[in-house]
Amino acid sequence: MTAWTDAVAALWPDAEVRSGGGTPALREFAFLPSAERPRLLLPAGLPAAAASALRRYSHDLGAPQRVVRALTATGVRAGLADRTLRHRLHVTGAGESIEDRLSELLSRRVVVSVGLGSARANRKPILHAITPDGEPVAFVKVGDTATARELVAAEAAALARLAERSFSGLRVPRVLHHGDWRGLRLLVLSPLPTGAVSFRSRRRAPVAAMRELTGATRRVPLASTAFWRRFGDLPLEDTRQRERLAEVVERIGAAYGADELEFGAWHGDWAPWNMAWHRGRVQLWDWERYDPDVPAGLDYAHYRLQTGGGYDTWPDPELLAPYGMRGRAAAITVELYLLELARRYLGDAQGALGEPLRPRAAKLLDLLHSNAGRTA
């Protein structure tokens, strides 16, 4: 609960934030589902806004769960949350708040819900800016640590680049504002339309949209690319991990460095929880890992392994067959995807905030160390 209190305190920097009641509050938030298991802070006393925030929270649900979510949101709109969600945060005092700043930027009065992911190095507050009567206006990413600020800046740059492209089967957010406020980095994004219920299987990757994002490709030897050079010297705290990763990179480079591969763009974290279907188009958000020049097929490999393949055993390269990739090219692409993911996890596992990711990072490095450079 301390992390949530601290997050709200940073958003109301001149006010006092505490649990419980007492002095009339500038803003009161209700913990969903509880202070012991917080997932979301809903603006209390504003049922239409709270219902809108709940309806658009965590899209990665099956169709039955989405129906339940929609029904729950209807109850929240009728005032259910104010009667049943008893754990609260109270903001008291004065001074400019994040709601004041966003209202100024968006030229209309908004209130916010607050989301905060699980403890990890890249965690950051995610706000949903909503009018008091429930109209969604923007989503806001808040860079409140050095890592979070870097990721927010990376996403702003990615979206600026993507704004220069046109897509038929894909829709991405627009940047409404990117800048600093009271020691925080704000990225204000247009909301994407999503439906409450979808009957598309989450295991069916949107291959056509992935190919559209990849765009025009270039065929080049792996060893000549900036993508490959990023693995040259990773600043890892653990000397043993650094040595093992260097060995993995050396083996992969020796085995496949001369191979010519197709290179194009990827989202970097394309999974069901970062997308929705709306009127036949994929609505895709969370672009902080975007890269315009990686081996084609990485998004598809990520989607498939994140939604069922897992990382307990070495993946079968045939998982890329629906993407149109087989044989040696598929095997190399799978290895490069695992190497890129290990680089990401090992980097995010550094420092005190990285501790939750360390077992996953170590497991992935073990898998690579046992198999890399030997399967194609």
Describe this structure in words.
It is a single chain. The chain has 376 residues and is α+β, with helices and mostly antiparallel strands. It is globular, with a radius of gyration of 22 Å. The strands form three sheets. Strands 1-4-2-3-5-6-7-10-9 form a nine-stranded antiparallel β-sheet, with helices on both faces. It has a three-stranded mixed β-sheet with strand order 8-14-13. α9 runs antiparallel to α11, α9 runs parallel beside α12 and α11 packs antiparallel against α12. The protein is built from twelve helices and 15 strands. About 4% of the residues have low confidence. It starts with a helix and ends in a 5-residue tail after the last helix. It has two domains: 188 residues, 2-Layer Sandwich (Phosphorylase Kinase, domain 1); 165 residues, Aminoglycoside 3'-phosphotransferase, Chain: A, domain 2, CATH 3.90.1200. The protein is 38% helix and 21% strand. β2 and β3 form a beta hairpin. This is Aminoglycoside phosphotransferase domain-containing protein. InterPro entries: Kinase-like_dom_sf. It comes from Actinoallomurus oryzae.
